[in-house]
Design goal:
Blueprint: H1 9-28, H2 43-47, H3 59-70, H4 92-104, H5 115-132, E1 145-149, H6 152-167, H7 171-175, E2 184-189, H8 194-202, E3 210-213, H9 223-235, E4 239-246, H10 258-267, E5 271-275, H11 289-293, E6 301-304, H12 306-310, E7 317-321, H13 325-331, H14 341-345, H15 364-374, H16 376-398, E8 403-405, E9 413-418, H17 422-434, E10 441-445, E11 448-454, H18 462-475
Parallel strand pairs: 2-3, 2-4, 4-5, 5-6
Antiparallel strand pairs: 1-7, 6-7, 8-9, 9-11, 10-11
Bound molecules: pyridoxal-5'-phosphate.
Length: 476
């Protein structure tokens, strides 16, 4: 019988270099390729054969198909003119780490299933913690620790479930949430990411029990507003269990009063989670660290996404806990087939107990390569470069008639609008997105449409910000 499913190592080596060459060429085209796909819904589907191909082809053929059929459906998040949403950088060193992770084929559900996957992740998280200046209570030496999750959404869900079970001594896990008998409430700023509400839905707490706290003029949540909401809820019998403070909101990068919010949480035994998904990367720079990590020393959990600004390609979200035990208690279910001596000994970390999924890939390797081959200093310099560019844009905007800042600049995020209102703002946004060299998206601030300019791709330079400012000026 032939062994047609196997590929020789020689063939792998040859094909891998073809793929690497193709990928390098593709990356090079980021500066000139149109950013938004011109595909209409269904175009790409129609161009692909409906029937599953039966005969294998060589990798060259697939690469040619990729170019002709799939590349037209790509959006170039790697373009230097990409200012939309947040950056989703894929640093070449991280990509190589990811490639190695795939090649090594590790399955890190248990320490036993891959000691390397587990312990490299523990060390990588500790390195990153140090690079960001986060407190050492998040390290494994005591009861803390860090884990790589797929996304910040999963991280907040995991922490909410842990908080729910901590507050109810496991009753919610055993019997389900009984909102009538025990109305658990969850808090976040009205500008917090929608993943908090989603977590409330999934954790069975109920959307009615979510309390978005109104934000102040800077769009951040004040401790005072949080406390006011909390006291009103407690007076009517609520049981507050969880607060998500945001450092760098999705809309305009607002930063909540984390230190003061932490005090309120401590007074009422409320789990404080910090979502610094985008802005967390800025803590690698000495210049920005203090404002990013403020209050972390009192948080129960702290999360940021290296897959956004830092360059550890998607997916890679880092979560640290001051006390890992409530999370493990909430997540741990052990069928017979997973029982093993190292786990029973209690001396190892089994990451399957740190999130929803069981199986997990070796994501730490992309952080490993990024930190070893690019280095923390260079990442700090990148952040500073991007913030300088956004200051430049801020100055340019100040000189453009009819355009104003919609919120104070936050790090490398600038929000602007047309003074004539939403329609005029939309016209400017359309002009930015028109010719494929630049991209931006929008948000609402105090009810009015605003254009978000998130500066942060690996390749962005002043010339790209100048080009953006010119388009804004001409369309204003
Ligand atoms: C502040 C903030 N939190 C959470 C998220 C969700 O991120 P993820 O895609 O990792 O779930 C985002 C996404 O942009 C965000 O801006």
């Amino acid at each position: 019988m032939s062994r047609a499913w196997r590929t020789s190592t020689e063939a792998f080596e040859r094909d891998a270099s073809l793929v690497a060459k193709w990928a390098a060429q593709h990356m090079q085209e980021a500066a000139t390729a149109p950013i938004w796909s011109a595909c209409s819904p269904g175009d790409l589907l129609k161009s692909l054969p409906e029937a599953c191909p039966s005969d294998p082809v060589d990798v060259e053929t697939v690469l040619a198909e990729l170019k002709s059929h799939i590349v037209p459906g790509l959006v170039r998040w790697d373009a230097p003119g990409w200012f939309a949403w947040f950056p989703s950088n894929a640093h070449p060193h991280a990509l190589l780490g990811d490639l190695l992770a795939s090649c090594l084929g590790q399955q890190g559900m248990l320490w036993l299933s891959s000691p390397a996957c587990t312990e490299v992740e523990m060390r990588a998280l500790s390195w990153l913690r140090q690079a960001l200046g986060l407190p050492d209570r998040f390290d494994f030496d005591g009861v803390g620790g860090g884990v790589i999750q797929d996304t910040a959404s999963s991280a907040v869900l995991s922490c909410l479930v842990a908080a729910r079970d901590r507050a109810t001594q496991g009753r919610a896990r055993r019997d389900g949430v009984d909102s009538a008998a025990e109305p658990l409430t969850v808090y976040a700023s009205g500008e917090a990411h929608s993943s908090v509400l989603k977590a409330v839905h999934i954790a069975g707490i109920g959307a009615r029990q979510f309390r978005p706290v109104p934000v102040g003029p800077g769009q951040g949540m004040s401790a005072e507003a949080f406390k006011e909401q909390l006291e009103a809820d407690m007076a009517s019998g609520a049981r507050p269990i969880f607060c998500c403070a945001t450092v760098g909101s999705t809309g305009c990068g607002a930063i909540d009063e984390v230190e003061e919010i932490a005090e309120v949480c401590a007074a009422h035994d409320i789990w404080l989670h910090v979502d610094a998904a985008w802005a967390g990367t800025a803590a690698v720079s000495d210049a920005f660290r203090p404002s990013i990590i403020a209050g972390a020393d009192r948080a129960d959990s702290w999360c940021f996404n290296p897959h956004k600004w830092m360059g550890a390609n998607f997916d890679c979200s880092c979560l640290w806990l001051a006390d890992r035990r409530p999370l493990i208690d909430a997540m741990s279910v052990t069928p017979e087939y997973l029982r093993n001596d190292p786990t029973e000994s209690g001396s190892v970390i089994d990451y399957r107990d740190w999130h929803v999924q069981l199986g997990r890939r070796f994501r730490a390797l992309k952080i490993w390569l990024l930190l070893r081959c690019t280095g923390v200093k260079a990442l700090g310099a990148m952040v500073e470069h991007h913030v300088e560019l956004s200051k430049l844009l801020e100055r340019r905007i100040a000189s453009i008639a009819n355009i104003e800042l919609a919120a104070p600049r936050s790090l490398a995020l600038v929000c602007l609008r047309h003074v004539d209102g939403d329609e005029a703002t939309q016209r400017v946004l359309d002009a930015i997105n028109q010719d494929g060299a630049l991209a931006a998206t929008h948000c609402r601030i105090d009810g009015a449409k605003a254009i978000r300019i998130a500066i942060g791709t690996l390749a962005v330079e002043q010339e790209h910000v100048d080009a953006l400012a010119r388009v804004i000026e001409l369309s204003a």
